[in-house]
Amino acid sequence: MYQLVNHSPGGESMKSQDIAILLVLGLVIWVVGTIYYADRGPAIFETTSGRFWLAFALSPILSAILCVAVLRWRHIAPEHWSSAMLLLALPGMIGEAVVLSNLSIFMPKLHPASGGRYGAFLFITYALVLGVALVVTLRATAIAQDAIHANGAR
Hints:
Layout: H1 16-45, H2 49-73, H3 81-101, H4 103-106, H5 115-153
Helix pairs in contact: 1-3, 2-5, 3-5
């Protein structure tokens, strides 16, 4: 039997307003982040190895904390975190494809050879953020399914 991963056993779904807000916030977060890295990129990507790896570790964690805070602020049910986080991430993922393919235009301070480091930064950040949401969604869905089966066995 096929089941939707993001199906909420209560039948509740994300509101259209939440979908729009998450997309807009995702765009805003991406724009702010891109402006920051366009300005500060050389100090992060073209510096000492220690500074780069520290930023490489902290940036995804801080991004995940920010995104989780947004989902909690919007009271998104855990069963919908995967979908909601994808809505937050999509504007940035699409925008970064444009930025990375035109790095010298959008990030003129950054040496072209640093594009790979910037891309790696993006991959690990999106992977962590989406991975956290997936774990929360799968866990919430499993708990809800267990509750349904337990109630059905009575």
